[in-house]
Amino acid sequence: MRQFSSLQTVPEDTARTRFEHTWREDQTSVDCQSDIQQVLSAWRTAVTELPYFPEHPTQDERDFQATEEYILHFYRRSSFVHEDFTGSPQLKDSIPYGAPSTSSIAVQAELTSLRSERDRLRWEVAEKDEQLIDQRQLQRELAQARAELQRRDQELARAHATLERSKKRTHGGPHPS
């Protein structure tokens, strides 16, 4: 099944089958087979991932950021709440309220590391997508070249058959009655 935005859900095979039947009914020449193959190969081509632009965060990134901020806020608060409930007296050398603790600094460092790894992986995905798009373009061009070669082979075979018939006629071969 394939969903087109919020409009409708269409079975994928049904949509393609209708398209193929309609296209083939409209064709009149045998040479249009290569056109059909080109259209079908383009029809089956799909981009799997869109390029990444860090200045425009995705919904997943916004959700991750909100969750991250909530966890950091909750983690800082819960560590102080836990200290308050222990009943242990506060030492004078302890971290003042609101100052970042060692554990929150470690969490922030880990989050920074994860963000940089995420960005690096996104760039790799974008590069692979570009390579995939280039590869698909080359495959389409190869299919077009093969179709053109097949068409020219057919033309050559027809010309060769015509030449053979004319040679038979000129050399006294049997003439059709």
Topology (elements, then pairings):
Layout (H helix, E strand, L loop, with lengths): L1 E3 L3 E3 L1 H15 L6 H12 L14 H28 L15 H69 L7
Antiparallel strand pairs: 1-2
Helix pairs in contact: 2-4, 3-4
Unreliable residue stretches: 80-94
On the 0 to 100 scale, the average pLDDT is 73
Beta fraction of the residues? under 5%
The major sheet is characterized as: 2 strands, antiparallel
The oligomeric status of these chains comes to single chain
Shape: rod-shaped
List the domain count as a whole number.
1
Provide the helix percentage.
Answer: over 70%
Q: In DSSP terms, counting alpha (H) and pi (I) runs of 4 or more, how many helices?
A: 4
Structural class of the secondary structure composition?
Answer: mainly alpha
Distance between the termini: 61 Å
Task: Say how many strands there are.
Answer: 2
Strand order of the largest sheet: 1-2
C-alpha-based Rg, rounded: 34 Å
Biased composition (Basic and acidic residues): 151-165
Region (Disordered): 151-177
Biased composition (Basic residues): 166-177
What's this model, at a glance?
The protein has a two-stranded antiparallel sheet. It has helices at 12-26, 33-44, 59-86, 102-170; strands at 2-4, 8-10.
